[in-house]
Amino acid sequence: ELKVEQNPLFLSMQEGKNYTIYCNYSTTSDRLYWYRQDPGKSLESLFVLLSNGAVKQEGRLMASLDTKARLSTLHITAAVHDLSATYFCAVDKNYGQNFVFGPGTRLSVLP
Amino acid sequence: KAGVTQTPRYLIKTRGQQVTLSCSPISGHRSVSWYQQTPGQGLQFLFEYFSETQRNKGNFPGRFSGRQFSNSRSEMNVSTLELGDSALYLCASSLRVLLLNEQFFGPGTRLTVL
User: Which of A28, A73, B31, B39 has the fewest CB atoms within 10 Å, i.e. is most exposed?
Assistant: First the structure.
């Protein structure tokens, strides 16, 4: 059974600081997705990582994938308050038949 | 391009009733997946439909069922509602191409069971 873990589950950081969220998964997969969810809202797609070594960047967020280590990271650079949200990673199971989501990391960026 | 739409956005039901939720995918997307989100269990996969066929199913009781129509619109039904069914139900659509299964989520239907 595919399991997806994230750490930390809660993250409180000050504006301007850097931090990394980790996503580990238990079985082989080379498709990993990051989503953002604001309180009371739906999920917004952030990054799609489709191969080992893939790196994607958008603004202050950068995601990478190491399929051999079964690890993806979401790095936050110089955090700003607008990045406060819950971030989920999700791994493809059976090549697209369904996703398995991690528990989410609730990020709070304090001014 | 219009996004994924879900109706209704909010529902209040009582135990024992049944409910039907609707989802319209992005135009051209033939895959529709349903998820249940609760504070305790997180995001859990319910089922996926592709070309009117259920392709995969999560670990939910038979009270949860769904279907997909020829225009790719999907409905989800929950019968004999229980208090624990209170949740945000999210629908996602995808092109479901082998190398890319990026899922785009609708706004969700918040179901409250009293």
Answer: B39
